[in-house]
Amino acid sequence: METIDMNDTEEIIKTTSYLFNCKFDDPTFDADNSYEHSDKAQKLIRDYGWNTIFPYWFDYLQQCCLTENDVLNFANLFFYYGGTEQPLRDPYPFISYLYYRVDTQKYGGTASDIFDSIAIPLLSNIGEINLEKNPSYVPEKDPQIIKAIEAWKSIKK
Amino acid sequence: MGTKSTSSYSGAGGSQPYADTYHVVDAELNNDKKDPDIYNPTTGYFQNPTATMLENAVQHDSFYIEGSKANGQYAYVMSQSGDIIFGKRSNPINPLKRSPHPTLIGGKDPEVQNAGMITFRNGKIYSVDNNSGHYRPDIKSMEKTDKILEEMCNRNPKLFHKDSKWRQ
Q: Given the DSSP bridges, would you call strands B84-87 and B52-53 parallel, antiparallel or unpaired?
């Protein structure tokens, strides 16, 4: 496990805030073929390692994304920054947190499409799902995700 | 960085034999026929309302779908006429179901030249694969899709993510 000092922590927190405190659907966000935010995210992961960075990103989601739209914005940014290409040994807490915070039946495809885009690769990477065998897989009906959502509900009461 | 395979599929052994076009695999078609939220006995698969021809989705060096920049994984098919059609996986009839690949065309047993998932990041094509449980096309069919995308990249490389294989 990498050790980081106070300066590193401050740097990670500051960069995480920079990366996620922006509106993904703003026309000026990494526009005109700029990859400014994406490159910064990639550099952060390279410099400190995903195992160090992911907890900060997940913490930002929980502490700073106060509305459902904030969570959707985070999800889009997380995907854009390549979060689904990074290994997560146990992605259930993270995935289920997204569904816990946003009712996909209310938001429809606006939520389920980006959440699927996150959930499916993360679960496939650890061999939990196989879309060839189950092309109709729906995360909201996955018993493990449902169980994890209930766990969030208990914690957050 | 080339196309990273974050594969949701078992790969070798699961595909149909190579063909110019593919029908929906029997097991999936038979399953879907039992589901009125996906298949109507008279008209077949509903047509996914988000189904968009790739060529028509371009605005200002980015791909858009339903008014927003494409970002995420989307289903796509390559139609018999050679068009790449992509769309959202969500099901407009039942939010607890999804829209399988055949709904990108609709009808009783729509044939395609290829099918899989196309990944966009902030409006740019990042990767494409042949992962479709409904069509299971042979990997050789990717040559056709790759050729179209390569031609598209030659015309406008800015439509492709700088880390995609087409920009390497």
A: antiparallel
CB contacts, 8 Å: A130 with chain B: 8-10
> What value does the mean pLDDT of chain B take?
92
Looking at chain A, which residue has its C-alpha nearest residue B102? A135
CB contact under 8 A, B133 and A124: no
List the single best residue of B66, B90, B135, B153 to mutate versus A (max A Cβ within 10 A): B90
Q: Which residues of B touch A104 (CB under 8 A)?
A: 95
pTM: 0.93
Q: Where are the domains of chain B?
A: 26-167
Side-by-side strand order, sheet with B58-59: B58-59, B62-65, B68-69
Q: Which of B9, B101, B158 sits opposite A33 (nearest CB)?
A: B158
Residue-wise pLDDT for B133-168, tens only, equals 999 999 999 999 999 999 999 999 999 999 999 999
Lowest mean pLDDT among A34-38, B10-14, B18-22: B10-14
Mark yes or no for CB contact B14/A30 under 8 Å. Answer: no
Please report how many Cα atoms fall inside a 13 Å half-sphere around the Cα of residue B86, on the Cβ side: 25
Question: What integer pLDDT is reported at residue B14 of this predicted model?
Answer: 85
Structure tokens at A18: 């920079």
Using the beta-carbon criterion (under 8 Å), do A138 and B71 form an inter-chain contact? no
CB contact under 8 A, B95 and A105: yes
Task: Give the list of residues 6+ apart from residue B91 with CB closer than 8 angstroms, or none.
Answer: B37, B38, B97, B98, B99
Residue B113 CB partners (closer than 8 Å, separation 6+): B20, B21, B22, B78, B79, B80, B82, B137, B141, B144
Three-class DSSP category at B52:
strand
Is the Cβ–Cβ distance between A100 and A135 less than 8 Å? no
